[in-house]
Structures
1.
Amino acid sequence: QVVDPEKMEEKWEREVKFLQIMRGAFPMHVPQILDIDYKHRKIYLQIDGPDFWELSKCSQENYGNVLPDWQEQMLAIIQAHKDRGWYKFSMHPSSYFVVDGKLKSINYFFTYHKDEPNISIADVESHIYSTRQDEMRKHLATLGIDWNTKQSFETLEQLCWESFRTNYPADFIERVKCLK
């Protein structure tokens, strides 16, 4: 969806940077990196077939059939991000693969460190699918967020999880929101 060359470069750099850091610090939470082709901007990962979303037939009701302890595994990955001071906003179930019975996180292009300058949604709008933007817009007023105004990462994280209520069970989202 992103066509701006500058934005594409930033996404590529973030993906490589945060994925490599995760691989070094928490190798159990990301796929093995087989190769990074900097020239063609491709990352080759060791994965087993389709992503978590596809394996669950695009329905949260099937997550437990794919991986019975998916909630605990995903919470551990999200906690690892928090332990590093990161805010990862690419949280769709398609951002995970199951490798040898373990959930593995990808799509770090939309990750920020707590010490980076705040952003507005408009700053990263091209990173966000239109259907996700529609879900986000439903929660702006409740959370007191203006699309064009820079927000804290904590506020944007709350918006992120509210927008994923159609993809994750409510009890899981509440558990994520309690992580520190």
2.
Amino acid sequence: VTHELEHALSHRLVFIPTDDHSLRPGPAVLSILKSFVEQGGILVLQTPPDLLGPLTGIYAENPRRTRHRLSFRAAVDEGFKYLDEVEETDIQLASRRTPEGPWTHGLMGSSGASPIAFFSDENQAAILRRRHGAGVVYTLGFDLKDLMARPRSRRHFDAGRCLTGEFEPAGDVMPLVLR
């Protein structure tokens, strides 16, 4: 974990979370990030996509708390190829009994941005991938804390499928993908 962009870019995979307010990219930083990706780097973004439009290809987003399901198109991307069970490809974000779930952002991208996952309630993109040279940029329309930390602490908008000690897709799929 670092707040130094130079140090972060020395690794093959760089993750920039939603709450990292230190990154307000100007043209110079955008150029550095694009160069990193073009040379084979993988950039995973949760930042507001409007700040990084040239990298992500996202032109608009649709924030909501009423989405209940996240569905992966695992065969579309090599990073998601191990999601081959229904429990892994279709994740419940919130129970239908819960009117509001976690904040999510339906992503609308240019033709160069490919959807990897959808919010199946509305068929809006949840993860978009955009290739640049030898690398790739993934933009997430959700906060990883809502998919990883909430299910493990039983604060998951009544979305848990099991009570204890079992495979819980909402909390276990994203760590598998990020490895």
3.
Amino acid sequence: DSSNAKILEDAAELLIDTAIKVYDKGVSYNRLLFLIPDEELEVELQRYDFMGLLKEKMKAAEVFPTVNSKYVSYDENLKFYKSGLAKYLSGREFPDLLMYSDYKEVDELLKEFSYSTYTYTEIAAKVKRWVSSRKVTDENIRKIAYTAIQFINEFGDTWQFDTYEEQRPSFFFNVDRKL
């Protein structure tokens, strides 16, 4: 049994090393998707809890993509939004924000890992600083507009959105392209 456990531990590490080497160009969820099985594991692998072992090894590996195009290992400080809020955000304000995912397998895995989100006041302050630090270009105005839509989708019907109105980020420009 101990030799089987060692073989499975080595297999999990090999899978992770392979994912990192195969997907070494660009940053995306491909490393994680490579590690999530498409179908249920064989009974023997289930008996040795291979998925549990693999998930623990995954947490320690740099396979989680952030909005700043970096891979990080998983810890309780990572933030994730199932909504599109993270689609356009990046920069020093968001070192621990995972990229947006439209993969249900990734969403389910992160839910299992108990991902967290910023508090409303944290995200509002971060988005406010992010918006005000953007140079006024058509591309950035577009990103800000889409972020505004996602922010409202995420928080528009929450009590925080109404209660903390003064903390709400300003997403709008005047005719002189000033916030």
4.
Amino acid sequence: AGVSGPQSEADGSRDTSGTHLEMKLWDIYYPEGWTENEDYKGDSETSSYGQLDYKQGDTVLAAVNISATVEDCNDYRDFLHTSGIDAHALAVDKTVEQKNIGGVPCVFSETTSWGEPVLTYMGRDVGSGTTVKVSISGEYSDPAVEKLISNLAFHLKDTGNEDYPWPWEGEAFTTDHEH
């Protein structure tokens, strides 16, 4: 089982100057102006998460939360549903716009949290059974945010995982039971 998917393509375009933050499931290089939020960080074989803050003085202009979690596909499919993303259009018709984030194709959704704008990217690497998520709060359209995210790479091992069927693929069942 090697490293899965297209992130090796993304590696060639990364700017590897700056400070390197290396987690078990992802790594990123961040330039001056960004700082690690030490209060939001965790790393294990099945879950890596962290936050980088873009500050001007003491004011956080943007916060970027990055996570990769080896789990079933429930959170990912729930995100699709709550974001109003048509799962069939994504999985079968291939008509939902996605962006390659760290080597994983991700859907995205704009929302607000506590009155702040939030842009969330979420993707599913089926072979590794991993859901990736990058949420940007604050000034997510700032060019510094795009530059930072382009320096992210997920490191996911294909374990042969298969997600359970989409609703349109499964067999219908009923809870009615005749005795």
